[in-house]
Design a protein that fits this description.
This protein has 21 helices and 19 strands. The chain is α/β, with parallel strands linked by helices. Among the domains are: 171 residues, Rossmann fold (3-Layer(aba) Sandwich), CATH 3.40.50.2300; 108 residues, no CATH class; 56 residues, no CATH class. It starts with a helix and ends with a helix. It comes from Melipona quadrifasciata.
Length: 661
């Protein structure tokens, strides 16, 4: 047997006790010189609660050089069981390798059944003593059977073994390969599949197919559910799905205060299933409880955040231009008004005064000065320059050509500004109301809303991050078990929910349909105060996702090969599209039914605000004029309502007199 093992493995680890230490004569084994050998000598009172460092070091070195064969010759079944439990628990041995052990019924006690679902390439040496029927004397030739176990080993009081060969009279009865492949064809045996429904791994629609094969109806059953269907056909086993008790609330499971586990983790620790479906992240935490296959997909983990509408319709008049554009327009208006003012004043004071001194006073001279009064006062200059921006014609066109040329170019500038303003105003009214969203981790960290999710590992991920924004999120991260409760808090605008993109998209569509039904049924609940749901654009992390297997599962190499082939032919992308098809269709319907570019009173409130402000300012100026008339003009000792011309003379009001002249 050792020779047969050496032909299949280039390295063997020998573990023996004092009884069998010299049983194997390695020197006489043919072609064994090329095989590496590690030897572990166990004491009869060996303790594995605190194992010797030498044992650990040899096992670690053997696994490092890919030792795939173990010859364990221990007479004490209890000691052999403890050794196997310790090395399997600490992953010091390759459970998918070849094992040769001494048969002992104590190795098959009920609490050790899980070992034989993980160590399946095992052969037990079972020795029988032959006696003569009449005399009872021991025969010279002994019979040795080679037994192995059935896989999978279902939970029973005892494990049945089967004989694969017999050594009798110095030869094998069959002489074939004793380490046969057991996972290629499982011969329609049942394998337990623990299920935690989580989009896009497994959907609720898959429940009706737990006890039967899916028909040709196109439904999104979930990526992992479809994977198991393909794997079960390729490996010829029957999947037996079940949902653990309270899995909806416990989910993956956490370690409770009394160091017990719940959820899928508890199922894995107890070894109740061969496969675990639940959108498991490929993390070190999960590798402590599961064997994970190669990742079949990566999911964007992000946040579902509340979306707010920008209530800026009251700013309708200033929305067409940005702040710097308005500053440039105001400065241009002031500069234009000043140029008109100084140009008109200079023409009136200098050119007109010079012509008067040269006795050019005539009718043509009076016509030339005509119209300059529009800009010779700074207030009038600003008012008429401002009115030209609104394409209001001047009362009269000034006669000086210098002023006329400047007015012409100002009109061209006004036309361009007005056209741009009107076009931008039209676009502002035509576009939907702008939305305020949170799209980065930095924005979420700065916001006042709470964040949370149902997975404790996610909280630890943010808390231990080197990024300051992620640390802030980790400090306010809350654990919330119920998904519906979390979505409701997001809709209220006080929470942000952490999950994968596909589940958040599905949850958002469900929420939109629910709100639509409430509006149609005219429920008393105030839906107008609810926020729209928005999925943050930035991915916190692209997390690899894998199928869960029992720890140290012998199925992993074969399953990895099948999953790799399934990925290469594009089935995973197809199944993901099937899962998200309903969400995509409902989103398209929601977008088609939503109102766009509707100009209503709400959008036009800026115009009403402008006219109300104008009325208020005019009313305030009117009151100021009345108060000025009553408290200043009427109390002036020179005021006489019968001789107003005396009161408004040049000595009292020279400015008014000049204007009248």
């Amino acid at each position: 047997m050792v020779k047969e093992i050496s032909n299949q493995s280039s390295c063997i680890v020998f573990v023996s006790d004092s009884v069998y230490r010299n049983l194997v004569d390695i020197k006489n084994i043919e072609n064994f010189s090329t095989t590496s050998k590690y030897e572990i000598a166990l004491r009869d009172n060996e303790q594995f609660l605190r194992p010797r460092h030498r044992i650990q070091r040899i096992l670690i070195e053997g696994k490092a050089v890919d030792c795939r064969a173990y010859v364990i010759l221990i007479a004490n079944g209890f000691l052999a069981a403890e050794f196997l439990q310790y090395t399997e628990r600490e992953r010091l041995i390759n459970t998918r390798g070849l094992f040769l052990l001494i048969y002992d019924s104590r190795l098959f006690r009920p609490h050790l059944h899980y070992l034989w679902n993980r160590i399946i390439n095992v052969v037990f040496i079972r020795q029988y003593n032959a006696y003569k029927h009449r005399s009872g004397e021991k025969a010279s030739k002994e019979r040795i059977d080679l037994d192995t176990i059935y896989f999978p080993s279902h939970r029973r009081k005892s494990i049945a073994t089967k004989c694969i060969d017999t050594w009798y009279k110095g030869k094998w009865r069959y002489g074939t390969n004793h380490f046969t492949e057991k996972i290629t064809n499982l011969q329609k045996k049942h394998l337990q599949i623990a299920v935690f429904e989580h989009i896009p791994a497994v959907t609720e629609k898959s429940r009706i197919y737990y006890n039967k094969q899916p028909d040709n109806k196109i439904e999104g059953l979930g990526i992992e559910f479809e994977l198991i269907q393909i794997i079960s056909k390729a490996m010829n086993f029957k999947p037996k799905y079940y949902m653990p008790e309270n899995i909806t609330s416990e989910k993956w499971g956490i370690e409770e205060d009394n160091q017990t586990h719940v959820g899928l983790v508890n199922e894995a620790i107890q070894g109740k299933a061969a496969f675990y479906l639940g959108d498991l992240y490929y993390t070190l935490h999960h590798l402590n409880y599961f064997d994970l296959t190669i990742p079949y997909n990566s999911e964007c983990l992000t946040f579902l955040t509340p979306e707010s509408l920008t209530e800026n319709s009251w700013k309708l008049l200033i929305l067409p231009f940005k702040l710097y554009t308005w500053i440039a327009l105001i400065l241009t208006l002031i500069l234009g008004s000043a140029i008109f003012y100084f140009l008109s004043l200079s023409y009136k004071r200098h050119i007109s005064f010079y012509k008067n001194q040269m006795h050019f006073q005539s009718i043509s001279m009076k016509n030339e000065v005509k119209g300059l009064y529009l800009f010779t006062e700074i207030g009038n200059s600003i008012l008429y320059t401002y009115s030209m921006l609104f394409q209001v014609s001047l009362p009269s066109l000034p006669s000086p050509w210098a002023v006329r040329v400047l007015i012409g170019w100002w009109w061209i500038y006004s036309i361009l500004v007005t056209v741009a303003y009107r076009a931008s105003m039209t676009a502002t009214l035509a576009n939907p109301v702008a939305r305020v969203t949170i799209d980065t981790v930095e924005q979420l960290a700065k916001s006042s809303i709470e964040v949370g999710g149902w997975n404790k590992e996610s909280k630890n991920f943010f808390s231990m991050s080197s990024d300051l924004s992620s640390q802030k999120i980790g400090n306010k991260f809350q654990l919330i078990e119920q998904e519906d409760e979390a979505i409701e808090k997001v809709a209220n605008g006080s929470f942000s929910y952490y999950e994968n993109y596909y589940l958040l998209r599905h949850a958002r569509v469900k929420r939109q349909i629910l709100e639509k039904e409430k509006k149609e049924n005219k429920t008393t609940e105030d839906i107008s105060s609810k926020h729209n749901l928005h999925i943050m654009q930035e991915c916190v992390i692209n997390m690899p996702i894998a199928l869960g297997l029992e720890k140290n599962s012998p199925l992993k190499p074969k399953v990895d090969t099948l999953i790799r082939r399934i990925i290469e032919i594009g089935l995973v992308e197809k199944w993901l599209s099937d899962v998200m098809e309903w969400s995509k269709i409902m989103e398209i319907r929601q977008e088609a039914e939503s109102e766009k570019a509707l100009i209503n009173l709400h959008k036009l409130q800026g115009a009403f605000i402008a006219i109300i402000v104008g009325y208020l300012l005019a009313f305030m100026i009117l009151i100021a004029e009345i108060l000025h008339w009553k408290h200043i003009v009427l109390k002036d000792p020179k005021f006489d309502k019968y001789h107003l011309d005396i009161f408004y003379n040049s000595t009292n009001n020279p400015k008014i007199t000049n204007n009248l002249n």
